[in-house]
Amino acid sequence: MADSAAPEPTNEPAWNQERLAHDPHADPEKAARVRAMFSAIAPSYDLNNRLHSFGLDQAWRRRTVREVARRLARANLSGVRVLDVACGTGDLSEAFADAGATVIGVDYTPPMLDVARTKAGRRVRRGGSAPTYAHGDATALTQPDAGFDAVTIAFGLRNVGNVPAAMREFHRVLRPGGVLAVLEFGLPTFPPARWVHRLYTERIMPFTATLIARDRSGAYKYLPRSVDTFLSPEGVAEAAAKAGFADVQLRRLTMGTCALTTAVRRSV
């Protein structure tokens, strides 16, 4: 999915019931539709994340920071170079900056980056360090080979058009011994918890999140459907291994509601 100009504005929803009846990951227009969707919900994205995850989204991101530090065998992340792909509004980028890392966030959707840059500006005005942000495509990164100690992507891999291509890019920009961390949604493994989860994500959350965002793009109908039709956590781990990563580790969080996959680029 090479980068391209943003689609022309249209009254058509990015995702409608007819399109979502099929696998959205197989949609030939997925890239443009994902960008249109996130452009529409960018202003309310953080609010909806906090409300509808009950604040767990930030806890999962902090866990990701700790796992990257553990796998790098670092007591802290001072001086560590992190590339946060599909960074969105910058929440994970900021979590790594809080831990002392030097962070570049890249995203495919300019309005999401606008929100991230506004937040970065507030951090700088308060005297803190801030990530830097750039427009970018996960499948065709412009960053140099072996330029980062860690590459991260949180809740964004399923929005990428070509997962194997993205994994190869992540491998390319990591230095030998560097760490990949993929945080992505999953389904609870305990059957009653899975039933409640489906009720919430497929019925309740799409209604309330759409109201809050005043969204007409179909974003909050796409999001649960995109989880159901995406790779399982084991599939994500397998994709990392196929791209050449070693020592792939999978950790399920919050009864499997999301999963954190980490791996290392071989030193040899």
Can you describe this structure?
With 268 residues, the chain is α/β, with parallel strands linked by helices. The protein has a single domain, classed as 3-Layer(aba) Sandwich (Rossmann fold). It is built from ten helices and seven strands. A seven-stranded mixed sheet has the order 3-2-1-4-5-7-6, sandwiched between helices. Helix 4 packs across helix 5 and helix 8 runs antiparallel to helix 9. The longest helix has 23 residues. The chain is globular.
List the helices and strands and how they pair.
Layout: H1 17-20, H2 30-41, H3 45-53, H4 56-71, E1 81-85, H5 91-98, E2 102-107, H6 110-125, E3 132-135, E4 148-154, H7 163-173, E5 174-185, H8 191-213, H9 219-228, H10 233-242, E6 245-253, E7 258-265
Parallel strand pairs: 1-2, 1-4, 2-3, 4-5
Antiparallel strand pairs: 5-7, 6-7
Helix pairs in contact: 4-5, 8-9
- Which strand-content bin applies to the residues? 15-25%
CATH topology: Rossmann fold
Strand order of the largest sheet: 3-2-1-4-5-7-6
Terminus-to-terminus distance:
30 Å
Structural class: alpha/beta
CATH class: Alpha Beta
Task: Give the name of the CATH architecture.
Answer: 3-Layer(aba) Sandwich
Total of DSSP H or I helical runs spanning 4+ residues: 10
SSE string, helices as H and strands as E: HHHHEHEHEEHEHHHEE
User: Any low-confidence stretches, pLDDT <50, length ≥5?
Assistant: 1-10
Number of DSSP strand runs: 7
How many domains? The number is: 1
CATH superfamily: Vaccinia Virus protein VP39
Mean pLDDT: 93
Helical percent range? 40-55%
* Assembly level: single chain
Largest sheet: 7 strands, mixed
Question: C-alpha Rg, in Å?
Answer: 18 Å
Given the C-alpha coordinates, what overall shape results? globular
